[in-house]
Amino acid sequence: MTSPQTKRKILTYPNPYLREEAQTILEFDNELKALFEEMCVLMHESDGVGLAATQVGESIQLLVLSSYVFLSDEERKRFSESEEGDMGKDLAIINPQVLEQSEDELVDHEGCLSFPDVYIKVKRPKWVKIVAQDIHGERIELRGEGFGARAILHEMDHLNGKVMTDHLSFLAKQKALKDHQRIQKRVAKNKAEETSSKVVSKSKSPGMQSKMKHKTQQRKKRGSKKKR
What is the DSSP secondary structure assignment for residue 127, as one 8-state letter? Predict the structure, then answer.
């Protein structure tokens, strides 16, 4: 997806950038802040709650998470039922490392902005604690439970060149990839039809018809001169 507010777009699988390992960030400058802001725009326009820099073609250890992922199940339910909800502050998580994670695991559905409309079941730790840096380079520690842990680890996978289908068995992975290919073909077809419709609509406009009529008349005049 490309946003009208940014030149970047979210890359879809199997773009090779999704397999690159992200490099450690050493400079916390305005360029990094601009990238963070662009990623926030793309994430929200795509109705996502997390996005890694590798998903927009930048192989650096930056990920964006909505504070929504750190809400309790009850708080997220209230938010979903509310007609007007504020997703809260977006967090820049830079150079993240896992400090601790639970041995107990949960299986739940996951989606990914690089696999639009594909949802699969993935096993993840119940909770995770990470250390990272914020957009200013300051040390931060975060703990995610349930959905929060899942979101953190999903995005950290991206920084390591992994995608969610890597957690599946061979057969489950093949099914998910087929679903993804089918959806991408449908999206491409819809875009082609939309483009074609715009071209046809433009050609039928009075201005365009007048230009075409004028060109036709000019051709006829040139043809009549040749016959003479």
Answer: E
Q: How far apart are CA 109 and CA 164, in angstroms?
A: 10
pTM for this one?
A: 0.79
Please list, in sequence order, all residues whose beta carbon lies within 8 angstroms of the beta carbon of residue 36, skipping any fewer than 6 positions away: 62, 64, 92, 135
Give the distance between the most distant pair of CA atoms in the chain.
92
pLDDT of residue 27: 97
Whether 155 is a known active-site residue: answer yes
Catalytic residue, chosen from 37, 38, 155, 193, is 155
Instruction: Give the span between the Cα atoms of 189 and 122, in whole angstroms.
Output: 30
Give whole-number Cα distances, 13 to 19, 180, 186, in Å.
9, 8, 15
Tens-digit pLDDT profile for residues 189-218: 887 777 666 655 555 556 555 555 555 555
- Edge to edge, what strands does the sheet with 139-145 contain? 50-52, 62-66, 90-101, 127-133, 139-145
Rounded Cα gap, residues 70 and 109, in angstroms:
17
Q: What is the pLDDT of residue 71?
A: 85
- Give residue 226's pLDDT band: very low, low, confident or very high (50, 70, 90): very low
Mean pLDDT of the chain: 86
φ and ψ of 41, to 5 deg: -60, -50
Q: What pLDDT was estimated at residue 73?
A: 77
Neighbours of 176 (CB within 10 A): 20
On the question of pLDDT at 227 being above 60, the answer is no
Block residue for tokens 């409309």: 117
